Amino acid sequence: MNHSRFLIAVIFLGTIACQTPGERGLKDEFQPDFYIGAAVNARQVDGSMASADSLLDLHFNSLTSENGLKWSNVHPQEDEFDFEFGDNYVKKGEEMDAFIVGHTLVWHQQVPDWVFRDQEGSFLSKEALQDRMENHIDTVVRRYKGRIDGWDVVNEAFEDDGTWRKTHWYMLMGEEYIAQAFTKAQKVDPDAELYYNDYNVWKPEKRRAILKMAQNLRSQGIRIDGIGMQGHYRLDFPSLDQIETAIEEIHQAGFQVMITELDVDVLPRPSDFDGADLEISYADSPEWNPYADSIPAEVHDKLVDRYASLFGLFKKHSDKISRVTFWGLHDGSTWLNNWPVRGRRNYPLLFDREMRLKWNTALFIKKNR
Ligand code: GLA
């Protein structure tokens, strides 16, 4: 923790329950600094869970669609769009007066295989795939025009070493697919902010490639407002310095910084990798599920300390960061219960399985310059 710049006092109360009148939420603690967001699933926005509703209302002023607006969910067949989630999601965000983010238009995961193929099963030509991509962007962005405030237009186009990820998008359309996606989104909703989003942006080679691509878009007059740094972090990794350098360099390059998918994995990893590559999947075993009953106090304390340090850093750079979004609402609904090992019990968020804040209204942060 960076005590030289900030005194960060985290008060652990353990089991603060629901909202009491006048209670300040996380969003209020960080109101002058950045939005506090949560990625939400279908049940958390359809009005059926009062507990999710009150948690969202009290603590968050931004929402991200966790899975519901990904291609495979919103556009499962060529002639079939499913907007049930999206409509509930945007309505919930508007009721909260939240900054609403659409995630994500063009990605290599959670996109059906038909997207890339013709009726015979052969890969599409560049032009045909561009048409299909533009039609998707047109339909989805248009439906929420003026209501979704920012879009993750392209997700995860680079490998960690800064080379292009060899996705179907890249292999069939070349690197221009990114320019075409941003151009189309801008045309359909000129008022929406447009972002590129990726994990391990703290890695210098990857960041360099992302910033080069983003600056290249700008030099062609194509709008790109910000770079989303997915914050899939671990208790001791990456370092605050690595994250800080990324924040500073993205800002210096002229882009808004967003911490888009924040969680802190407290469980061991079967092998040495980081990031959020969904291709990785191990079967559950007791060895990899050490806290199946509860989180030990010392691990909990490390989690508190990690979050305090991270928020100290984010606050220090609040002039550069527009939003900090948690990837999930509470420990019971985090993807980290199933990645990289399926069926574990993880504890990566600020809210426990009973949807109680693990600390009282936040990380109390006092500037001590
Ligand atoms: C990536 C994606 C998210 C989500 C997470 C983990 O980071 O951007 O949509 O799938 O992986 O679930």
Automatic annotation (TrEMBL):
Catalytic activity: Endohydrolysis of (1->4)-beta-D-xylosidic linkages in xylans
An example Gene Ontology molecular-function term: endo-1,4-beta-xylanase activity
Protein's GO biological process: xylan catabolic process
InterPro entries: GH, GH10, GH10_AS, GH10_dom
Catalytic center residues: E261 (nucleophile)
EC number(s) from the headed UniProt entry: 3.2.1.8
UniProt entry keywords in alphabetical sequence: Carbohydrate metabolism, Glycosidase, Hydrolase, Polysaccharide degradation, Xylan degradation
Residue span, GH10 domain: 20-368
PROSITE patterns per the UniProt record, alphabetical: GH10_1, GH10_2, PROKAR_LIPOPROTEIN
Family that this chain belongs to: Belongs to the glycosyl hydrolase 10 (cellulase F) family.
The protein's name in its UniProt record: Beta-xylanase
